Amino acid sequence: MSDPKHITDNENLNDYGIRINRWFLISLGAWPQISASNRKKKFAVSMQIFIYSTAMAIILIPCMLYMWLEKKDVETKLQAIIPLINRTSGFFHYWVLLTRNKDIQRCIRHMETDWKLIRRIDNRKVMLQYAKFGRFLTALCGTILGGSFIFVMIKTMETKTVVIGNKTITMHPMTCPMYSKILDWRLSPANEILLGVQYLSGFVIFWSIATVCGLAAVFAAHACGQLNVLHMWLNELAEEKNNHLAEQKLGAVVKHHWRVLSFVQQIESITHNACLAELMTGTANMCLMGYFVVMNWSEFDRANILSHVMAYVTAAIITFIYCYIGEILTEEVIL
């Protein structure tokens, strides 16, 4: 299965597929440290993870207390459950990235080895085609979720005037409501500080979801590329007239097929919990967003309708991507 004409820049070819995910993972402090790094770098990454986790906890716990302890009507609590679901899902995705760090590292190394093993130009063209597809899906996830995060930031930068007792104050609205008995988040400077913490936690949440989705897309696309290469080898094997050479090629096909199935199993091990969580939260979000669009339609509240429609579209696209990559990978494995 070799050819004298081959591409030698394996690292760049592998990096092309995972580059966007690498940027995401580094920004989250979750990039697998494949090469040995110094203590200062490890300490910096540990501090980064600690700060991100603390920021998410500061927002998530008061939001849960608000849901359980604040005496609010059902409509208000339904409004609060949407950001709570999103933050819980984002926290879970971040936890998956941190705890499955070594498995992600193994998958990246597996991909790099595949580029080294397969040297023929026609095979590599197929692999590169699927690498581009995985990269496109990763960029799509990042663009959609990044756009949603920017929209949320812009929305919370606006101020509104509220009356507390005998005082009239100006405050920034929170994307995630918080339990006010511990700390009144409406008053300055708590309002501005918590707003900054919400921005930081929102960045981690949106980027964690985008990263897991992107990794699933890149890994699944690479596996599909490998399976298509196997199909090419099998077609050549069917036309081979030399029995001895056919036996050698069949051995290579069987060995590589086992290698691809092992890679698919690793993908499933890393992503199955996150995929299930995203499908559940995505479905819940779409149901709730649809409900609020209908409820706000009678009042024709354009701002609320627009925000709910955008959130609905975001949840629908991310859910579709997960379902799509799972479907095409299943079809390729069965074939």
UniProtKB/TrEMBL annotation:
<dbReference type="InterPro" id="IPR004117">
    <property type="entry name" value="7tm6_olfct_rcpt"/>
</dbReference>
<keyword id="KW-1133">Transmembrane helix</keyword>
<keyword id="KW-0472">Membrane</keyword>
<dbReference type="Pfam" id="PF02949">
    <property type="entry name" value="7tm_6"/>
</dbReference>
<feature type="transmembrane region" description="Helical">
    <location>
        <begin position="305"/>
        <end position="325"/>
    </location>
</feature>
<feature type="transmembrane region" description="Helical">
    <location>
        <begin position="204"/>
        <end position="224"/>
    </location>
</feature>
<feature type="transmembrane region" description="Helical">
    <location>
        <begin position="49"/>
        <end position="69"/>
    </location>
</feature>
<dbReference type="GO" id="GO:0005549">
    <property type="term" value="F:odorant binding"/>
</dbReference>
<keyword id="KW-1003">Cell membrane</keyword>
<keyword id="KW-0807">Transducer</keyword>
<protein>
    <submittedName>
        <fullName>Uncharacterized protein LOC112460811 isoform X1</fullName>
    </submittedName>
</protein>
<feature type="transmembrane region" description="Helical">
    <location>
        <begin position="275"/>
        <end position="293"/>
    </location>
</feature>
<feature type="transmembrane region" description="Helical">
    <location>
        <begin position="133"/>
        <end position="154"/>
    </location>
</feature>
<dbReference type="GO" id="GO:0007165">
    <property type="term" value="P:signal transduction"/>
</dbReference>
<feature type="transmembrane region" description="Helical">
    <location>
        <begin position="81"/>
        <end position="99"/>
    </location>
</feature>
<keyword id="KW-0812">Transmembrane</keyword>
<keyword id="KW-0716">Sensory transduction</keyword>
<keyword id="KW-0552">Olfaction</keyword>
<dbReference type="GO" id="GO:0005886">
    <property type="term" value="C:plasma membrane"/>
</dbReference>
<keyword id="KW-0675">Receptor</keyword>
<dbReference type="GO" id="GO:0004984">
    <property type="term" value="F:olfactory receptor activity"/>
</dbReference>
